[in-house]
Amino acid sequence: MADSDNIDSRLSRVYKQNGDKRDLFDDWAQTYDHDLVNEMGYVADVEACRQFETLVSDRQARILDAGCGTGLVGSRLKKAGYNNIFGSDYSEKMLEQAKATGAYLALEQHDLTQPVITDQPYDAAIAVGVFAFSLPSAEHLVNITCSLKTGGIAMVTVNGKAWRQVDWESKLEGFNQAYPHTRLVNVRTIEYLRTDGIDGRLLTLRRVG
Ligand SMILES: C[S@@+](CC[C@H](N)C(=O)[O-])C[C@H]1O[C@@H](n2cnc3c(N)ncnc32)[C@H](O)[C@@H]1O
Is residue 2's pLDDT more than 50? Predict the structure, then answer.
């Protein structure tokens, strides 16, 4: 089987498996960066970080990279001058890779289907490549925003294929009424996986109380 077939089948297993996919991500950790960036043309991290920089100008901001994976986002943000970056992921093997980047002040194992608990709320959060077809889903967005200071923002990507297939638009209908402490303030289309021409959505959420 060609390399690209292996990668495609790995990606579709990730997409198709409902519920906890921790084992799949544990198994993928070693080759994830190469497979996703070089083979699949993953640019969601580039796009999200670019927008993040326009909204969060304070390089001392306390930032949570939720579902940090191998640390692509943290590394990119560190390169852009941010130096107060924390990461979380539910895959231990992914966290090991993220630690090796040296971009994070601390990393912790956390499942985003549960609220992020922190003594010191974050100024901003970012979650790239984490929200797609199954879990975590739209109702779990507030598990990230609950960790923010009032006024803090979270930028979250959603895979564009999933956006259409599981109808994220209707999942997000009434979101601001359902969660009065969080405002969905913007949804923009971004490039996501270039090789297969898959776009994505970048959601901007704000903690309001
Ligand atoms: C496609 S990777 C994206 C990683 C990184 N943010 C990036 O842009 O390269 C998805 C990551 O989300 C993590 N993840 C998936 N579901 C999760 C959940 N329920 N709680 C925490 N992490 C989760 C996986 O372990 C994996 O590291």
Answer: no
